[in-house]
Write a structure and sequence with these properties.
Elements lengths: L8 H20 L2 H8 L5 H19 L2 H6 L3 H24 L5 H29 L5 H30 L3 H18 L23 H8 L3 H17 L1 H9 L6 H9 L3 H17 L1 H11 L13 H32 L6 H30 L1 H13 L13 H10 L1
Helix pairs in contact: 1-7, 1-8, 2-3, 3-6, 3-16, 5-6, 5-8, 6-16, 7-13, 7-15, 9-16, 10-16, 10-17, 11-17, 12-15, 13-14, 13-15, 14-15, 16-17
């Protein structure tokens, strides 16, 4: 079975580092808003600003990191980003212990963690492409995807219990430790990594900041996938705060019901990511990616029809399970397709551009949908997002290109 293929000791350490940091992030889910409310007594506007501004400013800070990381060894960069996130997060419990924690510090930490997240993901994508043979990339990305969804199922409930028992900064400490353990795991990979050669000027030029966007926007299949993913992710994430307001407010769901409604369906992500290698082997990469891309757009509109009580809870779980299963299938196939179609010397800049754009779109659409909900109500705003999502399959590419390596080999034979 493709999903059980052994990918070697070095990948094992890379995956172990990803596992521990993913579970740490899952445990910390919701910690900053809770600290802002319970410790700093912040209002809804401040909590929303913390979520949106941290992501948006973090994305802006990450823009110059792409070209900088591109021409450096990726594993040391990943270790540095882990240690940066560890140090930033540890500053929160330290300030809390001395009674000096402020909203401004939470905002700065959110920005630092968001920027380091983007740089780490870009470097890890390039490192994975160099570490794993092309035929094993989908299996590797599927394992990362399944880990993400498993951590999403397990982490938030355990994190909520830990914060209730040991205090609001407990899970922040746990996540900081997870990044330290991740850095140690990356160091344990061993081996040598050649320093990427840099053509032309030795210093970073302003034009290189846009190189990732230029490559994506000029590519016939990455371009539509780029617009599709940032719009879909933005619309889905923009409705999450509105769902919280609707379910915990007018519909009267208890907090544990709200958590169950969104945690349990994440098992669908595990199902989708495990199916990805088998379906691609049978039907082909492009067909599976586009089919999953169409299906994931069909679920969210159902959330506009949620009612109180058990029927409403069941509807949410069914809709979320379908959505997450399709995302769990789509995401590793997209990640593999993107690596297959990006030259090695542009991987980091391309992934950085993708992540920065996605973060900026989520922040912007979250703000816009907050204003829309204030005017029309949460249910109407959720319905509008669901209807718009139905149109996003129009942005998917109609046909696929051969992987870059395959095209280069064919060109060398002619």
């Amino acid at each position: 079975m493709a999903g059980r293929r052994a990918l070697g000791r070095q990948f094992g350490w890379l995956w172990a580092a990803f596992v521990v940091s993913s579970y740490g992030t899952g445990l910390r889910f919701g910690a900053f808003p809770m600290i802002a409310v319970l410790v700093l007594h912040s209002g809804p506007a401040q909590v929303a600003a913390l979520a949106a501004a941290g992501r948006a400013v973090g994305a802006l800070v990450a823009v110059p990191l792409g070209p900088w990381v591109e021409f450096r060894r990726k594993r040391p960069v990943m270790v540095a980003m882990d240690l940066t996130r560890c140090a930033a997060l540890l500053s929160v419990p330290a300030a809390y212990a001395f009674g000096r924690l402020s909203f401004a510090q939470l905002l700065v930490v959110s920005v630092a963690v968001a920027a380091a997240d983007i740089a780490f993901r870009a470097a890890s994508g390039a490192y994975l492409k160099a570490l794993v043979p092309p035929e094993d990339l989908l299996v590797a990305n599927g394992r990362f995807e399944s880990t993400t969804w498993t951590a999403t199922v397990v982490g938030p409930p355990l994190g909520g219990a830990a914060m209730g028992m040991f205090g609001p900064v407990t899970t922040v400490v746990a996540d900081a430790v997870s990044y330290l353990l991740s850095a140690l795991g990356l160091r344990a990979i061993g081996g040598t990594e050649p320093r990427p050669a840099r053509a032309g000027a030795s210093r970073l030029r302003a034009g290189e900041l846009l190189e990732g966007w230029r490559y994506v926007l000029a590519h016939p299949t990455l371009r539509p996938l780029f617009f599709n993913t940032i719009v879909v992710n933005g619309l889905i994430m923009a409705t999450e705060p509105l769902l919280a307001v609707l379910l915990l407010g007018p519909l009267g769901f208890a907090p544990w019901q709200y958590g169950l409604a969104f945690a349990a369906p994440c098992l669908g992500g595990l199902v989708g990511s495990r199916l990805a290698p088998r379906l691609v082997a049978r039907f082909g990469q492009h067909k599976v990616m586009c089919t999953a891309g169409v299906l994931r757009a069909c679920w969210s509109v159902g959330l506009a029809f949620v009612r109180p009580g058990v029927p409403g809870l069941v509807l949410i779980m069914v809709v979320q399970f379908g959505l997450v299963t399709c995302c769990g299938l789509f995401n590793p196939v997209l990640a593999t397709y993107r690596l297959d179609h990006t030259p090695t010397d542009r991987v980091v800049r391309t992934l950085t551009a993708w992540s920065v754009s996605s973060s900026a779109a989520i922040a912007a659409l979250t703000a816009v949908w907050g204003l829309l909900a204030a005017v029309t109500g949460p249910r109407t705003a959720i319905a509008v997002a669901g209807v718009l999502l139905l149109a996003t399959p129009l942005l998917l590419p109609r046909r696929g290109n051969a992987p870059l390596e395959t095209r280069e080999q064919a060109a060398s034979l002619t």
